[in-house]
Design brief:
This protein is of the alpha+beta class and about 375 residues long. It has two domains: about 90 residues, NE0471 N-terminal domain-like (2-Layer Sandwich); about 260 residues, Double-stranded beta-helix (4-Layer Sandwich), CATH 3.60.130. Strands 7, 8, 9, 10, 12, 19 and 21 form a seven-stranded mixed β-sheet that branches. Strands 11-20-13-18 form a four-stranded antiparallel β-sheet. Strand 2 and strand 3 form a beta hairpin. It is globular, with a radius of gyration of 25 Å. The structure holds fe (ii) ion (FE2). Fe (ii) ion binds next to loops.
Length: about 375
């Protein structure tokens, strides 16, 4: 599918032409560093066997030849010839001129609102998910795409939430324990343990790194009210950006501070923005929690009014019912949220009956790894 390979810049680059007219350039240094031969990459685990310092700073391409489904490239001064599959070159091409603005998200992520999500909450049964890789794949994939999912059919007993994390990874233990109780208590020292409603929030922004997944399971819920709700922080951030780009800039470029010192021997502190963008503008994390926001001291004096205006507007949008998806967790049900994206809230409930939930943290890299491994396995089986 390659139509031509033209060496340019005295061997510093190469331009590849593809059937259909697409052109992609590569640098000699990049190609040499990413060579796929078994002296550069371990045939066993794919890990690189050389360092950047093993490659001459004067590396150039001396010759290139299209050979079927591969491109053969010779490098000087090394006098090394390496073959690159054209499919690999196509998949790893980096020569694009589409400049992406702040707040973009990858193809795997679909933002949602109440209108698009209330009647299609992703869910799976525990028995099916633990037995059938297709069911598990779809459930994990929903977490990747939408940032939350519900699981039914768990035993309504203490610790059942570990069965959910066991499906894809590991619990992240914290000072709250392997898991923690969420139930009404007398003399609560944390608002989660009262029967008041809770503003939509992400959990534990005072940790660095923040727990990237939270699982909440229900053992008993016979109270009036006490529904759970979730809000797509990425959708809200986009709404804020659409009406106030400067507000998004302030909340993403100025660090906020979060802290928790509610138990003896614990003083957790972090300095991270409420809306975190990657170096290329990708929207990567929302931290939003009124209870643990510490004094923000990293905003220039001249910007503080505008910062608070943006914070207020962000909070207002988060409370806008059009972003909120609500469901009541029944005994034996759990839900998982991507704690870097989806905020969760609880409606107020009355004192009659009991509401007993348990929560735990886990990590998204493990979930995405399990998902990718299942998808890879299915692809191999299909080939
Ligand atoms: Fe929470």
């Amino acid at each position: 599918m390659l139509t031509h390979a033209l060496i340019g810049d005295d061997g510093g680059t190469i331009e590849l032409g593809w059937q259909g007219g697409r052109r992609t350039r590569f640098h000699a240094m990049w190609l040499r560093d990413n060579a796929l031969d078994d002296k550069t990459r371990s045939a066993g685990n794919g890990q690189r066997l050389i360092t950047i310092l093993d490659i001459s700073a004067d590396t150039k391409i001396s010759a290139a030849a299209i050979k079927g489904d591969a491109l053969e490239i010779s490098f000087v001064p090394e006098q090394k010839t390496v073959s690159f599959p054209t499919a690999w070159l196509s998949a790893n091409a980096y020569d694009r001129d589409t400049a992406r603005g702040a707040g973009w998200t990858g193809e795997d992520i679909v933002r949602w609102t109440k209108a698009s999500m209330q009647n299609s909450v992703p869910r799976a049964g525990y028995a099916a998910a633990s037995r059938d890789r297709t069911v598990l794949r779809d459930w994990l994939s929903a977490v990747r795409t939408y940032g939350f999912a519900v699981m039914d059919g768990l035993p309504a007993e203490s610790g059942a939430l570990c069965k959910v994390s066991d499906l894809f990874g590991y619990i992240r233990e914290t000072n709250y324990g392997r898991w923690f109780e969420v139930r009404a208590e007398v003399n609560p020292n944390n608002l989660a343990y009262t029967n008041l409603g809770l503003q939509a929030h992400t959990d534990n922004p005072y940790r660095d790194p923040v727990p990237t997944l939270q699982i909440l399971s229900c053992i008993e819920n016979t109270v009036e009210g006490g529904e759970s709700s979730v809000v797509d922080g990425f959708a809200v951030a986009a709404a804020l950006q659409a009406e106030n780009p400067e507000g998004l800039r302030l909340l993403s470029s100025c660090p906020a501070r979060f802290e928790y010192a509610g138990s003896s021997g614990v003083r957790l502190q972090s300095k991270r923005p409420m809306i975190e963008l990657g170096p290329d503008g990708e929207l990567i994390c929302i931290r939003f929690n009124n209870r643990s926001l510490a004094p923000v001291v990293d905003v220039p004096f001249a910007d503080m009014d505008a910062y608070y205006g943006a914070y207020r507007r962000f909070a207002k949008l988060i409370e806008d019912p059009s972003f909120e998806v609500t469901f009541k967790l029944e005994a034996g049900q759990a839900f998982i949220v991507d704690n870097t994206r989806v905020m969760h809230a609880r409606k107020a409930f009355s004192g009659t009956g009991k509401r007993w939930l348990q929560g735990c943290y886990a990590d998204k890299d493990g979930l995405l790894s399990t998902l990718a491994a299942i998808e890879h396995g299915f692809k191999e089986a299909a080939e």
